Amino acid sequence: MIFSKKTLSLLLAILMLAAFTASAMAEEAPLLITPIRIDTGEGAEAEHPIFERWQKHSGEITGITPIEVYEDGTIYYHVAIKAQQEGTVVFVITPGSIGISGDEYKIGDTFTAWYDGFRPVIMIYPPQYEAVVYGVNLGITGVKITRFDEDFLSREGDLVIRIGEDTVIRWADGAEFTGEIQELIGPELVIVHSILALSFPAQTTPSAIYILPELEENDGAWGDDGGLADLYDFTDIPILVNGEQIEVPFPPYAVGWMVMVPLRAVAEALGFEVHWVANDQPIMLNNVYSVQIGVDSYIRGRMVPFQLGIAPELVNSTTFVPLSFFRDVIGLNNAYFFEGVIEINDDEPMESDMH
């Protein structure tokens, strides 16, 4: 077959373009699919798609509310802040929260708090997070939460710490650390610093280091609290479905930071037909949704099953499901515990008020 010069030039151009495209895809594809490896704090690394475990919010304090006073005088606080991007956010300050700039704060202060992004979020509005670490008016003070190897290089490879004579080292409860420096290799550490040396990786001599406790699987909190049950009495908490309070056979309750509600009462108030056969069989809603007692696998049609962090429970012959079931599985806009009331409806998303 004989090609003209014009045809040969066109074919050559197409081949060059194809080679360039393949080369570009080969170089760029890994950037899109390679996950960041993050230690979950349970002794083994896990792949997680570009998500930092330790999240933070910062903003001006707009409200401070004491929640519960214990016999020993310990107080929980709800600290509401107006974050620039997220809107209103509430942090729960527990006995286990670490205040890196002291325990004093007031309305108008700039409040920054870090929380564990891998922990379940309380289905409540405004969103609430348990503060693992918090500080007030930090200015140039920096904070990093991570683990370090034997060279005191951070897990991410971006920071080396040099422990100095003036570095204060404490356990999360405030007790002074009196062990060997090598014991800081491995545990999750809160590094408080102000000056970073311009190098890669960056280097700093921390002003303070706090050693976080290792969390057991499904722990309710960082401190010694038992989650929402320590903060609220659910005996008389009303459940509003589409704005109307419904009658329930037994009141809702909390497991850790999750609210559990009676399935049949809520589902029927939403207009679903509930079909139950036996405790070891799935419970069907309109033959579309199904749940099974003791199994953390919530079904919606032919979709991949949802896992919500807790299985349906049978209490007093009543099936309870997490409040998030109605939002994440059923698909309603709102299913929150808000200002002492459980709200379930398909009105405008409550998050819209945050932006």
Give the SSE map.
Elements: H1 5-33, E1 36-39, E2 45-48, E3 54-69, E4 75-83, E5 87-93, E6 98-99, E7 110-116, E8 128-130, E9 133-136, E10 142-146, E11 159-161, E12 168-171, E13 189-193, E14 202-204, E15 208-211, H2 228-231, E16 239-241, E17 244-245, E18 253-255, E19 258-262, H3 263-269, E20 274-275, E21 283-285, E22 289-292, E23 295-300, E24 313-315, E25 318-322, H4 324-329, E26 334-338, E27 341-345
Parallel strand pairs: 5-8, 6-9, 11-14, 12-15, 16-27
Antiparallel strand pairs: 1-2, 3-4, 3-7, 4-5, 7-9, 10-13, 13-15, 16-17, 18-19, 19-25, 20-21, 21-22, 22-23, 24-25, 26-27
Provide a descriptive summary of the structure in words.
The protein has 355 residues and is mainly beta. About 14% of the residues have low confidence. It has a seven-stranded mixed beta sheet with strand order 6-9-7-3-4-5-8, with no helix packed on it. Strands 10-13-15-12 form a four-stranded mixed beta sheet, with no helix packed on it. The protein contains four helices and 27 strands. Strand 3 and strand 4 form a beta hairpin. The termini are far apart. The chain folds into three domains: 30 residues; 189 residues, Beta Barrel (OB fold (Dihydrolipoamide Acetyltransferase, E2P)), CATH 2.40.50; 123 residues, Copper amine oxidase-like, N-terminal domain (Copper Amine Oxidase, Chain A, domain 1, 2-Layer Sandwich), CATH 3.30.457.
